[in-house]
Amino acid sequence: MADVSSFQRSLVAKVVLREIVEGTYVQESEQQPNYLFTTEGKKIYRANIIAVIVNKQKIGSITNLLLDDSTGKMTLRFFEEQKNIEEINMGDVVLVIGRIRIFNNEKYLSAEIMRRVEPLWLKVRSWECEKKGLLSLEEGAKEKNQKRIDPAEEVILEKGNFASDNNALGRSIQEDVQLPFQKIIKIIKELDQGEGVLIEEVITKSMLGDSEKILEKMLVCGEIFQNLPGRVKVL
Known about the structure:
Radius of gyration: 19 Å
Strand order of the largest sheet: 5-6-7-9-8
Strand content: 25-35%
Largest sheet: 5 strands, mixed, barrel
Low-confidence stretches: 1-9, 136-178
């Protein structure tokens, strides 16, 4: 059981900054990692966040990046100089995986992974969080009124996990999602000559109405990546 608990604690949770701001930081014993206890009752050990950098401050070897994802703001802190930090500027959208820390009663993020992503990934995260009920009814009202079903929504929640209270519905969703997902993977592999494939070319070849959304979600979950601006490869 100890091994299972250790594995669960290492999982990365997709969150919005509001969850961290409103959550309670819990300090455990030396043998157990600290975590954030959210208002929804979740324990967050490592967070996956997509946000815009709205401020950048360097104090000695410490670099502070102020993140804003429209639900809240929080500092992303680096204690050592790193080359990739120098390449990040205000206005960039970044995907961050890191741990939540606290100093002088102020929460901040300590990054394990940070990479620049296209601005449209912010929309993806907004859709995901609205789906999970993390956004307010007012923020999500427009999408709810449209009653739009996103065929790739389940792809990035947990790779290979299509949990559903209704098994039959879960299988149906999985089948609908896997087909376009696998089709895009196949297209990229066929067209890739070593330098990746243009996103526009993948969209054209796939002939899927939601190809852009599926590509966005595949990038976020790590199934594909951008090796060059506007180009993608399969991991």
